[in-house]
Amino acid sequence: MDVPDEDEDDLEDIIRGEEPEKIQDRDKSEEEQDAPCWKWTTSPCAASPVKSFAQIHGYDYKFYHAQHMKGYYDTWIRPHLLASLLRDNDYDFVMTMDADVTITHKDVPLEWLFNRWNITERTSIALPWDVETQIWETDYIRGKDSRGLTVLNAGVVIVQNLPHTLEMLQAWGDCPTETRYEGCAHWKTEWSHEQRAFSEYIRYDFNPDGDNIVPIACDDAMSWPGATEERPGPFNSVVLSDCNGNFLRHHTWHKERPRGEFQDAVMQLMIRLLQDKVKENMDTILTEERKERKGGGGIA
């Protein structure tokens, strides 16, 4: 097997092919790491944790190591790949997570989260509100588009297999060509790339019913506990949004944390399962003495 270049994009997927709905969940690594994300055994990225989550709930799973798009930042593969996964497979939903996203409650199924986030039969895409950050000792705040609305973070993306979704993904992927959106070519290589292009252009044109594009609460799917206390954090920035990643934690600054959090989450889940198993078998585990034991007299 040919070994890919380290600057290529890495994508990981989970898919569900069972009733009542079919779900694919894809984890995507965008940023360069000390060890590239496709080297699962040495990388700090969260590839195998996503696979374990898929196995727990019966979702299909795939890992994609996508090729570089010439002239584009590598994360621009996202809308094209999402469209391909929906178009070429019999999945109702596809969910992507960046490799620096961790799942805090592995026993909670996606269907429950979809209900919590009000994802309806008309929803084409759902993704979380981004955190706002301020450059240390300046007044510059990042996290808003040119209209002053908080941007949506593409570290977690859920898409539903609908005609409207495919039309939206086509417009998103073609945005930098400027055939429809003048100025979008700026985001081909400028941070935050396809994420910013979605918030600048796509979300304003593809939400006719109000729930075609669903924002997920920042506190549910962004940042981590204590992020606002890091002053300054990496990149000379301060997190202003007090989001704790109650269900999905996005470690935009700390790429080394996903592996440790995965281990903690698995141990917590195992302990809960063991406790439940003990409760189920109390009749064979627990022995109650029928009368009070008297002291002395040796062992009876």
Structural overview:
The protein is α+β, with helices and mostly antiparallel strands and 300 residues long. Helix 2 (77-88) packs antiparallel against helix 4. Helices cover 29% and strands 19% of the residues. It has a 7-stranded mixed beta sheet with strand order 3-1-2-4-9-6-10, with helices on both faces. The chain has a 3-stranded antiparallel beta sheet with strand order 8-7-11, with no helix packed on it.
Q: At the fourth CATH level, what is the homologous superfamily?
A: Spore Coat Polysaccharide Biosynthesis Protein SpsA, Chain A
Major sheet: arrangement of strands: 3-1-2-4-9-6-10
Specify the oligomeric state.
single chain
Strand content: 15-25%
Sequence-ordered SSE layout with sheet pairings:
Elements: E1 9-16, E2 23-29, H1 47-57, E3 59-66, H2 77-88, E4 93-98, E5 101-103, H3 110-116, E6 125-128, E7 133-135, E8 141-142, E9 156-160, H4 163-174, H5 193-205, E10 213-216, H6 218-221, E11 237-239, E12 248-250, H7 257-280, H8 282-285
Parallel strand pairs: 2-4, 6-10
Antiparallel strand pairs: 1-2, 1-3, 4-9, 5-12, 6-9, 7-8, 7-11
